[in-house]
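yo

u said u wanted the structure for the complex thing, so here. seqs first:
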Amino acid sequence: MTLSNVIRKVRDACPPDCRVCEEACAKKLGSAGPVIRAENVHKVPLFKAITCYQCSEPKCMEACPPKIKAISKDSNGVVRIDPSKCIKCPRPPCAKACPYGHMLLNSEELRGVVKCEMCDGDPECVKACPYGVLEYFKGEGIQKYLSDEDYLVLGTRACAGCPGEIALRFTLRVVGGKDTVVFGCPGCMTTLMIGWGDRASINLPYVNCLFTNVPSTMTGVSSYYRHIGKDANLVAFVGDGCVADVSFQMLSGAAERGERIIIICYDNEGYMNTGIQRSSTTPFAAWTNTSPVGGERQGKAQNSKYMPLIMASHNIPYVATASPSHLEDYAKKLTKALNVKDGMSYIHLLAPCPTGWRFPLDKGVDVAQAAVETDYFPLWECEGGEFRITEEVKNPKPVSEFTKLTGRYSHLNEDKLQQLQKMVDERSARIKALVSLTSGSNKLTVQKGG
Amino acid sequence: MKVETKLGYQTKVLDGNRAAAYGVMLCQPDVICAYPITPQSEILEQLYLFQAQGLLDAQMVEVESEHSAMGALRGASAAGARTFTATAAQGLAFMFENCINVATTRLPIVMVNVCRQMIAPHVINCSHEDIMMAKEMGWIQIHSDTCQEIVDSVIMAYRLAEDPEIRIPVVVCHDGYFLSHLWEPVEIPPVEKAQGFLQPLTMSPKIDPRVSVTLGPAVPGEMGTKLRYTQSVAIQRAKEKFDQIDEEFEEVFGRSHGGQLEEYRMEDADLVIIAMGSCVGTAKVAVDRKREEGIKIGLIKIRMFRPFPCEKLASAIRGRKGVGVLDRSISLGWGLGHIFVELKAALQTSNVDMPILDFICGLSNMDITIESLERIIDMMSEAVRGGSYKEVTWIDLE
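structre next:
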């Protein structure tokens, strides 16, 4: 499996009548093109590929008759038409086969097709756009972290559109197969790993635990492996209910002892598996079934407990926040966590929940992106006692740009919004202060395992 | 085992807790996780001392609570380690869900419980309340009444738990204060001899980084039921297995503690006292005294409480004239002691028609005295003679 390079939309900043990208493409391709349409760019959501996806198994390539074989994928993964072989069908089967409509009829000759071939790695449309809307995204940046195998078997089930599932599959591709044992406990993501009867759901060693004994079970395995000199990666993928609430004591104890384990918390900010109830990571004023909206109740009364900073306060070797909207950043952090040999790593991953936060199924990554861009969920790490921001947000948008995307905040009034903004600002300022405080030689002393 | 010792047999004067620690040291576990709680703490302290002296090569993990102690043992044992922990009362209650989890995961963990009453009121002293509360956690449960027996029971516990036909965790119990803090002479065998009595752990570990299996999956109803059935069959096997192990122990070490039960002066007994734990020693003295008065009385010491030794008890009681049960606990809701309730259930299908009396004694650290035992025996005699009697007597309140 290869992650393709694509041209994608990364900012919602198109002026209504702007056609600069289309004009640049038309200039390059001549009267056959263009292959990028301004109206598509304007209306397509963020992070969608605009032109050809450069599919790993191109339908267009399959559709071209075997005796012609004019379509192929080059060494960069770009799907190309060989003009010396293409017979320019009047009703091209390749265009018909493309599920995304990215094979366009040659508008000059009215036979044959034209498609995006990325301008040999330097797309004209990207260069031309004055608003930074388009990006030439290279899959290689993430590809290098991933194994080819998807470790979850067919038929596992999460809610449609669940970013947690995206993150889990991604995580397993990074950590799997490296003498890794995966640990889980009751929660949303367990349903993908727990197995049924004599059938496993996950093609890795997996230990299903109680809600309360993940950190302690991992402590026991880690202790025994230390005793017999065995090296293994112990990785938990567990929810905020486990980490912040029910197993908080156990997690804190393991951190204090310096157990060599990796805890990834997928935070959907509530007890979602049991039907959307508030947890200690549910943010201020958010609706859940146990922090309802009506009468005097206006969502959750308390602000959330900020777990990543709490874990950093244990002075463990590595702590980070991560988001499914920034997978390359997450992959780097996972790799750092895997390399910690003398203590605990903790990664706090935001997992927007379409079912519990109330947003359309295809918006999960957009919501995560907004969380980062509003500084609601800053991306930072604390490595060896040194804090740093890993994704700089120069001008954070107001938190309303995040809350407006989700139904759980549809009741927010101005007063509550201001309170939430203040909490977001304070949290962000605190992280920035820690970055200043701990840079270079001022880094904090790390708690190592005994 | 990486410890090499030239120590031969030793006789030491030890309290019950230290005796337990010696038993554990002889078995050389790989991972020990325990949280201190009165009256267990000396077990832990002695184990740390052994480690410092080079007599014990184990990972000692100072977990932050009993819940994590049993959770950690779950992981370690599943990964292939021989493990140990100890607790009492509130600690046992706190780790309860993990105890059930490790039993139903069939892990051969050995734990020592120092029997103590539960809170409230704030009594931290002896009764059987904690271990009775925990009797349904699916563990094999053994009780000792001398410090020597504690050492021996720990060794036998590992042998029993790790038997491939059993693979069920075992809790070895001794009474708080009355045995945990009682000093007695104890013979400690050489480490090699104890190691020779145990068998190496031959099962493949349930957790292995190179083997893609799922530990603890969800299961459909029929499979879940089948698993409970096989578990139930396995724990029943422990009765006979324990008797066999005790016999083998006698061959190797020269001492027997009786297996499921010990029978004392039962050959021609008309009256039978049934007791468990530290009061057995005192009860034997009372039995001897009453024998001198001509009363044909004997004693059955229950050593294995789970699985409940139904058959052996029924067989030992058949043909007698009266039974008195010493219960160091009360089953709230029955108004009767736990041993009594279980005994009555065990005798349901036997043709036993004789007065069976329940005596609630020794709660909240009350002494079970020879004087109260003599009163108990008198009541039993009265009942057997045809006099009126109560089903249950709270001897310390009369």
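The first strand of chain B starts at residue 10 and ends at 15. The interface with chain A takes residues 30-31, 33, 58-59, 61-65, 67-81, 83, 97-98, 101, 207-220, 223 of chain B (CB under 8 Å).
cya
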